[in-house]
Target: Epoxyqueuosine reductase
Amino acid sequence: MHVDTLTDYSHLDLRQIAENIKAWGMELGFQAIGIAGNDLGQAEARLLEWLAQGCHGEMDYMANHGVKRSRPQELVPGTLRVITARMAYFPPQARDSIAVMDDSSKAFISRYALGRDYHKLIRARLQKLAEKIQSEIGPFQFRAFTDSAPVMEVELASKSGLGWRGKHSLLLSRSSGSWFFLGEIYTDLPLPIDEPEQNHCGTCTRCMTSCPTDAIVAPYQVDAQRCISYLTIELKGSIPEELRPLIGNRVYGCDDCQLACPWNKFGQLTREPDFAVRHGLDDAKLTALFRWSEEEFDARLAGSPIRRIGHERWLRNIAVGLGNALPSDDVIAALQSRLDHPSVLVREHVVWALERQISRRE
Model:
């Protein structure tokens, strides 16, 4: 909601309101709420350097918005504070991640994507939080986001005390690890700002050394062009051949750096039914998923974040996984069934996978 005139909030007890906002947020299912200012100057310099190095790959949207990403007041005029929120997503019933990745016949899907798409759920909860604030104090300016606009989510969450940026570039919390989504409310309320969390990574580099493709090129810096999450989700074209064997059976996203992080022994399981595992995606066989027609893909993944990559890239990713699987007649037969697929992209990856399967049998 936008208020056209400058609002005078001098009559409000802003410290008490901030405490109330945190309590209301917890009641709505968030595990933590923080409040940050709008100065991201240091982060802006790092962002511009990262973009200049081309580490964003094909993610042109990272550069298209200019400095709006690092200047909240330019994205939403009048923004003085950012209310940040985090919500756990790891489903309690999901099959053990390492066990799935160790079985080359299975498809590993990043644990955040096993249930329903988080965007609508979190944005709706943030909207409810803003409406609750409004019902208590009257009209104020706000706009809610969750991974849906040029917003420096990790930086804002870090500044607001929800955690610190780990060397893998994700937010870490001593009480919750990193298995959570982030969301924000931009507002003109001059709320008291929370103190940032200190960095607790120390000399640990487990996230860096665990990355299958060495995408964490330096502490706190990820080269997206080597990141499996980028390759399987953001990249629209062909996956570089030299990286395909390193992807293993990861067909949508990658959790390796999080799985290696010692702080995730404190990771919380989600209490949200929408994030529960759907369609057995926590432990599905590659060959079974590869058989899905486009109609099945659209129907089964309706409401899933996976659906946005489309059936073509879904098959591309699974073909790579099949190429990396232990050689078997079932895998070869599955790949051969897609040799005449109308997509050049799919056929290219199928041919590569078949050649890899056959060469490893000899």
In short: The first strand starts at residue 32 and ends at 36. The chain has a mean pLDDT of 93.
